[in-house]
């Protein structure tokens, strides 16, 4: 029991990045998210030191795992700008459909943030939806969420180890790679993601969003020291609050396969609180006067 609780605490102190704007842990177990009693029963005999040995597959193993899942990832390494834009349209439509869907169940809530979930149709896990009101206009929030140098994510998010734009297709469409720090002297390995990221605007709704999905790139294969994760289509939707142009309703939708071999029940138990922590950190960064110069 102590080992399971220890691993949950470690997961709470880090995050795996979805470049649509959320720090996520998104694998699943059948009981649903946030069930601490179930987690403890599953992890009572799990040693963190054992997790240290099995969390990070070697590069060849990662390549084989990635290849076996290629049908679930958009492969756009040799495509034209038009192909990128067609894929981005598909990602945006899928993310918008999730945004408008209503069949969500409550996972966890705090004073300011609510987290919901439902079963994913993309992989054996859950989709998560976290939402709150933030005291900043939509365009500013999106800028803080996008990866550096297109946005400011790398300037304030302490979980970010690396953030880069691999290719800029146009002002609102990029290929980005983000990675997290490892935790507890390498006990939990760094994760990285390579995503096609598109910014969309819905003027009739007063909404701006950033949507993404993982892709494969020949020029960005798995790297030593990182476990390559997969983000299925998701997005961050920022809608201006009626009567208050300096506030917006923010909805983050994520569905992420972390890969590696961390116990999925432990991973999922950390997720709802992790999403809430992310919103609090984002709000603090938006209010930080030292960020105004960026």
Return Rg in Å: 18 Å
- Written as H for each helix and E for each strand, in order along the chain, the element string is HEEHHHEHEEEHHEEEEEEEH
Main pleated-sheet profile: 11 strands, mixed
Shape label? globular
Low-confidence runs: 21-31, 35-54
Question: How many runs of DSSP E, i.e. beta strands?
Answer: 13
Amino- and carboxy-terminal Cα gap = 45 Å
Number of helices, where a helix is a run of at least 4 consecutive DSSP H or I residues? 8
Name the helicity range.
25-40%
Mean pLDDT: 77
Percent of residues in beta strands: 25-35%
**Category by helix and strand content:** alpha+beta
Keywords:
294 residues, alpha+beta, 11-stranded mixed sheet, two-stranded antiparallel ribbon, 8 helices
């Amino acid at each position: 029991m102590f080992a399971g609780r220890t691993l949950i605490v470690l997961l709470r102190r880090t995050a795996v990045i979805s470049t649509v704007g959320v720090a996520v842990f998104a694998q699943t177990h059948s009981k649903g998210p946030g069930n601490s009693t179930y987690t403890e029963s599953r992890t009572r005999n799990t040693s963190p030191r054992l997790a240290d040995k099995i969390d990070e597959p070697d590069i060849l193993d990662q390549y084989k795992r990635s290849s076996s899942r290629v049908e679930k990832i958009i492969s756009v390494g040799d495509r034209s700008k038009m192909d990128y834009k067609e894929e981005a349209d598909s990602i945006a439509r899928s993310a918008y459909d999730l945004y408008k869907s209503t069949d969500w169940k409550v996972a966890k809530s705090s004073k300011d943030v609510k987290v919901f979930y439902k079963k994913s149709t993309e992989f054996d896990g859950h989709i998560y939806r976290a939402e709150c009101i933030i005291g900043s206009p939509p365009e500013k929030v999106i800028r803080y969420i996008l990866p550096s140098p297109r946005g400011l994510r790398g300037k304030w998010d302490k979980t970010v180890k690396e953030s880069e734009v691999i290719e800029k297709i146009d002002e609102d469409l990029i290929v980005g790679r983000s990675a997290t720090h490892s935790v507890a002297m390498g006990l939990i390995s760094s994760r990285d993601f390579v995503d096609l990221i598109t910014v969309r605007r819905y003027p009739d709704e007063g909404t701006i969003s950033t949507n993404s999905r993982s892709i494969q790139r020949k020029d960005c294969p798995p790297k030593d020291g990182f476990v390559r994760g997969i983000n299925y289509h998701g997005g961050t939707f920022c809608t201006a609050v009626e009567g208050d142009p300096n506030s917006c309703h923010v909805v983050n939708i994520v569905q992420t396969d972390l890969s590696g071999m961390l116990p999925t029940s432990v991973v999922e138990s950390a997720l709802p609180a992790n999403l809430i922590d992310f919103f609090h950190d984002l709000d603090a960064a938006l209010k930080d006067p030292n960020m105004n110069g960026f």
